[in-house]
Amino acid sequence: MSGEKDKDKSKVHKLSLKGSSKLVAEFFNYSINTILFQRGVYPAEDFSAVKKYGLTMLVSSDDQVKAYIKKIMSQLDKWMVGGKISKLVVVITDKETGEHVERWQFDVQIFNKSSKSKSSKRSVAEKENAAPDAAAAPAAQPEKTEKEIQDEIQSIFRQITASVTFLPQLDGDCTFNVLVYADADSDVPMEWGDSDAKEIVNGEKVQLRSFSTSNHRVDTLVSYRLAD
């Protein structure tokens, strides 16, 4: 009986912090896959279609890529629920030159969070201390329906898909890395090492849409190297 009661409550009341964290982590999972597909980092035949957010999403069916993303997501889930994440970055790098050619940045704001702890940068193979965040966290946002949140997420994925119209074509073989910016006091797995920010040198930047729940706001920005 209590289970049913809780279920009813969750429909009426705003998304819990845990529910919101799960939603943001899931969004990151689909974002990484969508970027890899849309930017041709892996062949189209390495992806399979799934329905999500009222859209047809493409996710990698390559075992190595799936294992890498799964490793990121299992850690990300813990950090998101703990309120430790401030940023997730997907960097596409030219295998031959080692040059970073594209950088997708997702900034995470957590509402009603104290900003005492310093931030640091991390990826599955990377971690680096960054400056403390001076600004206080914004107050909680008005409640939204699940549909309103889904509509905002849909808009971001439509923009990522449409970005191929302005982003330069990626030449040659590319690879990708994921950086996660987490609080300095976060528990970091042994296999995560130091990293720089992997910025695009003299790159162009385009701000894409954002989405928010009553607990989180995620802003999307893509930086890219101008075609020679």
Automatic annotation (TrEMBL):
Pfam families associated with the record: HORMA
Domain HORMA: residue ranges: 18-222
Cellular component GO terms, alphabetical: cytoplasm; kinetochore; mitotic checkpoint complex; nucleoplasm
Keyword Nucleus recorded: yes
Region (Disordered): 121-148
Keyword terms of this UniProt record: Cell cycle, Cell division, Mitosis, Nucleus
Comp. bias (Low complexity): 131-142
Compartments where found: Nucleus
Transmembrane segments: none
Keyword Transmembrane: no
Biological process per Gene Ontology, one example term: mitotic spindle assembly checkpoint signaling
Annotated family: Belongs to the MAD2 family.
Protein name: Putative spindle assembly checkpoint protein
Species annotation: Coleophoma cylindrospora
